[in-house]
Amino acid sequence: MMSSTTINSNNTITLMGSGLAGSVLALLLGKKGFNVRVHEKRSLEVNPAQRARSINLALSDRGIKTLRETGHLADILEIAIPMKGRMIHSIEGNQTFQPYSSDSKKHLYSVSRQLLNEKLGEHASKLDNVEILYNQTCKSININQGTYDILDKDGQSTTYSTSTIIGCDGAFSAVRNSMVKLDRQNYSQSYLEHGYKELCIPPGENGAFLLDKNSLHIWPRGSFMMIALPNIDGSFTCTLFFPFDGELSFKSLDSKEKVHQFFTQYFADAYKLMPTLLDDYFSNPTSSLVTVKTSPWNYQGKCTLVGDAAHAIVPFYGQGMNAAFEDVLELVNCFDKAFPKGGQSSQLSNETLWECYNAYQNARKANSDAIAEMAIENFIEMRDSVSDPMFLFKKKVEHLLEQTYPNRFVSRYELISYSTEPYAYAQKIGLLNQQILNQLVKDANFDISKIDLALADKLITQVLNK
Ligand SMILES: Cc1cc2nc3c(=O)[nH]c(=O)nc-3n(C[C@H](O)[C@H](O)[C@H](O)COP(=O)(O)OP(=O)(O)OC[C@H]3O[C@@H](n4cnc5c(N)ncnc54)[C@H](O)[C@@H]3O)c2cc1C
Ligand SMILES: *[C@@H]1O[C@H](CO)[C@@H](O)[C@H](O)[C@H]1NC(C)=O
Ligand SMILES: *[C@@H]1O[C@H](CO)[C@@H](O)[C@H](O)[C@H]1NC(C)=O
Ligand SMILES: *[C@@H]1O[C@H](CO)[C@@H](O)[C@H](O)[C@H]1NC(C)=O
Ligand SMILES: *[C@@H]1O[C@H](CO)[C@@H](O)[C@H](O)[C@H]1NC(C)=O
């Protein structure tokens, strides 16, 4: 390690991490006139071949609401591909399209994490009062003193002091790790027995899409599944969700021959489009899926957490980034209320920041707990549902009610993906919907024509108050 220096910055907000949440938070706080310094572990430069084809994410209304606030939504949507529904691939290779919503104007977007992150970072860096420093890893923070140590790529270590630190450093947050060591900090982490691996369907000739471009593709196979989202270069990024251990698992597929057999048996239609699969399978990492909960989210006014740092969730509702963007908007609103004169004319005092962070946590914690729980439920559903006739029948009845009673009966999926109603509200309505469905399916004997719509009408009034 080379010499160590100390840099003091008065009235500065430090963000740790310039991922999705960090870059959009830097942009929005910067626009309000706050001095923002961001330390990001990654290098700014990436391998060009990797750029467009990096992992892609489903962006929905919640995330879009925050992106609109940046003033750059139109620019961002240029790299986004609308997905109008799910394309289910059966084991025989048949494709069935399920629109996401009875309203054809509603859709999700597929967006490259890398390109989105770049755009947000570029817009933020253009502001005079925002500085994003790349190749800088936060090693530790001294929360009480408001100091932290940064290690750069050359091995140079620098100690900074700052007014306040916001941990935007993802699921394995260094800021959160420092907080967890404090007294009376609740913390839990829980890993799924499944992990994931990214694979690729390259573009066809002249950048042609080899599967339907405007769908989120799903290959449900009971205890495991694969999904694929489109990229703007015509490729698809596939993600295989698969157990770590067991008879059919990442561990058991330990040779190219076994991988070849497995894909031929379960994903034959996709496999035909994956010329580099056998190499990709062994060169790409197998990653784990974790749910992290912690509370409180702040230590006085000294630090707080947003996005995955505050609440890592499993990806089965495609909501982690969307939830992170909702956090950002809420936190910025709390800053607005706490510092009504704006960043330039406000002193960032510990007391006012503390109030601001408490208000932010009060608004968000129950909602992030709700989406964390629902994401795990959705994983269990997606995994087991294919073999449960009652589950499939209830889904049918749910669609019937949505179509028969629009605005009165709204499914939990719709509330999560196509509304900006709080997640905790979606969770509550989801439970009430289940009560209604349970009553309706009782005597229907798996026959949709036997569903008593008069009873449904009455139950919607009674149970949902609609
Ligand atoms: C397989 C998978 C699929 C997903 N699909 C979706 C989806 O379809 N839709 C959706 O909304 N969400 C999805 N998510 C979730 C989404 O990726 C995350 O919720 C989102 O990236 C969280 O943003 P963040 O900014 O909090 O964290 P990140 O995006 O992880 O950013 C954290 C940043 O902090 C930096 N950093 C980390 N440690 C340090 C340190 N010590 N010092 C400095 N910098 C540091 C990192 O380099 C990174 O840039 C998915 C997640 C997974 C795993
Ligand atoms: C970050 O480090 C990489 C080498 O690891 C270097 O190529 C790049 O120029 C550095 N980027 C910045 C912004 O310092
Ligand atoms: C799949 O398609 C084939 C041929 O088009 C058809 O015979 C078969 O019944 C279909 N299977 C399912 C499960 O839909
Ligand atoms: C920590 O967890 C306990 C037990 O669930 C709970 O009673 C307490 O309120 C939690 N504390 C915080 C700060 O969330
Ligand atoms: C923050 O303010 C509170 C309330 O005035 C005080 O109790 C606490 O010691 C302060 N913390 C720091 C780190 O200054």
From TrEMBL:
> Where does it primarily localize?
mitochondrion
Q: Which reaction does it catalyse?
A: L-kynurenine + NADPH + O2 + H(+) = 3-hydroxy-L-kynurenine + NADP(+) + H2O
| Entry keyword annotation includes ATP-binding | no
**Record GO cellular component, one term:** mitochondrial outer membrane
Residue stretches making up the FAD-binding domain: 15-179, 300-333
Q: Which residues cross the membrane?
A: 12-30
Q: What is this protein called?
A: Kynurenine 3-monooxygenase
Similarity comment text for this entry: Belongs to the aromatic-ring hydroxylase family. KMO subfamily.
One Gene Ontology biological process:
'de novo' NAD+ biosynthetic process from L-tryptophan
Q: What Gene Ontology molecular-function terms does this entry list? A: FAD binding; kynurenine 3-monooxygenase activity
Look up keyword Transmembrane and say if it applies: yes
Q: Which cofactor does it need?
A: FAD
Species of origin reads: Polysphondylium violaceum
